[in-house]
């Protein structure tokens, strides 16, 4: 028998659920009801902050979010037997509807949506804010809600579409179509742009900006194959004079260079040196203060995942006959014998727990450097405050290359590609190269696939690129060795959702599960 718990993923303020189907206590004496909150601007601001807190929580960007994206791309391999079973299932494609990592991310995004809906639906009671300030706060909540739905629809297809705060136990909804979810997200992002500023002062960095809404909308449109409309949004970002490529590629992944000119939207963590908050719901004044990514991926941490051989061999190198070894190869990974800890320590094989890699036929141990605190620390347990860059200007430029190529503007597409390669710390030979001629649309697309992969390795972009290109029949070969058609195109709807949502039945499950 199904229990009427709102999609198993919405925490309703002021409502407590009983494990007994026949007994339901609808009031929580220890909780604050939504109806009694949002009386003034301070409470509205706190409500919006709670939405950001959910995004940066352990269940999303601080941990489970990067695993779900990275493990479903071909950028990653298991660091060794220490990779937990639910994560290894995602890496091998053996996951099912009970996978806990997948279910955790689904649950967390709906909690984020629920918080955003509570803010939006109760905002009318707030009268002590200037209209522009109130509109901005609502636009921030709507942006985060749109981001959550974009994440959900791009990975699961059609999902329940909650546009309003759910107040009753029979408020669960069936799956909407993928087209309807995309249409809603598109309309929201088009409408809210005008209420968001181009930039913020130092005290408010990390809030959603106009450029973040435009870039997110471009992502949404590209996933649907609407390249002409995506170009319009990308050019808004490109022509805004707000963003630029930073000279040093590695500055995009260090703690000291957060919120630089290249950053469009990043999740803000407190400075390293605190205590990691394992609370998955982002609750409390200290929720989400640090991220555990550096511990999960670092050479001297748990090293649960390492770069895949295919990624390591994707980079241009003189040893393979290329004109130059791509500096992003050294910037993205740590190798045995390399200095770290401000140059005071040398990395050994023994420090790197688990598996080795094979690069151009040579076996050696390689670990992730991006977002690792090892550049300035030598600790066996590393959680830290390096902000997660969700969107950066390099993606804007590479996306412009892709849309221009799709629209038949090959010279302009190549121009954008070469802008990325011309970054001062990269300075790679311009296209065309011996390996990547760029005379035809197919040749330019191959260069785009290459450039996006080496520029954005381990940045939770490759997974969605594969999803987009596969759906649009652009891939010459399937990147994932385990891929099964009519199954792995989408993730399964979590079993907890099927069990708890009265409007979703077993027959509504995605194909193959």
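-> sequence recovered:
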């Amino acid at each position: 028998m199904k229990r009427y718990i709102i999609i198993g993923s919405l925490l309703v303020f002021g409502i407590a659920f009983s494990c007994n189907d026949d007994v339901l206590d609808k009031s929580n004496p220890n909780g604050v009801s939504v109806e009694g909150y949002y009386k003034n601007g301070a409470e509205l601001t706190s409500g919006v902050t709670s939405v950001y807190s959910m995004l940066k929580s352990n269940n999303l960007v601080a941990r489970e979010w990067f695993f779900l994206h990275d493990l479903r791309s071909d950028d990653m391999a298991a660091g060794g037997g220490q990779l937990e079973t639910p994560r290894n299932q995602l890496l091998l494609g053996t996951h099912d509807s009970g996978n806990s990592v997948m279910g955790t991310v689904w649950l967390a995004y709906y909690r984020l949506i629920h918080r955003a809906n509570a803010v939006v639906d109760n905002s009318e009671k707030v009268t002590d804010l200037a209209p522009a300030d109130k509109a901005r706060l609502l636009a921030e909540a709507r942006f985060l809600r749109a981001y959550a739905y974009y994440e959900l629809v791009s990975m699961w297809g059609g999902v329940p579409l909650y546009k309003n705060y759910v107040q009753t136990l029979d408020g669960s909804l069936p799956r909407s179509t993928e087209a309807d979810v995309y249409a809603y997200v598109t309309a929201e992002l088009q409408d809210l742009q005008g209420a968001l500023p181009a930039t913020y002062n130092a005290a408010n960095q990390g809030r959603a900006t106009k450029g973040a809404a435009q870039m997110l909308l471009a992502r949404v449109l590209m996933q649907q194959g609407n390249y002409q409309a995506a170009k319009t949004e990308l050019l808004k970002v490109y022509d805004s004079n707000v963003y630029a490529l930073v000279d040093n590629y590695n500055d995009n992944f260090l703690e000291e260079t957060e919120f630089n000119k290249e950053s469009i939207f990043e999740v803000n963590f407190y400075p390293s040196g605190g205590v990691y908050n394992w609370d998955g719901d982002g609750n409390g004044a200290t929720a989400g203060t640090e991220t555990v990514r550096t511990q999960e991926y670092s050479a001297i941490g748990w090293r649960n995942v390492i770069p895949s051989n295919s990624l390591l061999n994707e980079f241009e190198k003189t040893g393979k006959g290329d004109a130059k070894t791509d500096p992003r190869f050294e910037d993205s990974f740590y190798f045995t014998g390399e200095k770290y800890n401000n140059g005071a320590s040398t990395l050994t094989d023994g420090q790197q727990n688990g598996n080795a890699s094979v690069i151009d036929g040579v076996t050696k141990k390689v670990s992730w450097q991006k977002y690792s605190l090892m550049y300035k620390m030598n600790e066996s347990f590393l959680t830290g405050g390096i902000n997660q860059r969700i969107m950066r200007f390099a993606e804007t430029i590479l996306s412009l290359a892709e849309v221009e190529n799709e629209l038949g503007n090959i010279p302009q597409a190549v121009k954008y590609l070469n802008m990325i390669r011309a970054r001062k710390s990269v300075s790679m030979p311009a296209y065309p190269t011996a390996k990547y001629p760029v005379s035809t649309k197919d040749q330019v697309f191959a260069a785009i696939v290459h450039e996006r992969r080496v520029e954005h390795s381990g940045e939770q972009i490759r997974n969605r690129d594969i999803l987009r290109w596969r759906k649009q029949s652009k891939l010459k070969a399937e990147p994932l060795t385990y891929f099964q058609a009519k199954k792995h195109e989408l993730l399964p709807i979590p079993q907890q959702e099927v069990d708890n949502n009265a409007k979703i039945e077993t027959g509504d499950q995605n194909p193959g599960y």
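Residues 38-286 form a domain with the Serine Threonine Protein Phosphatase 5, Tetratricopeptide repeat fold (CATH 1.25.40.390).
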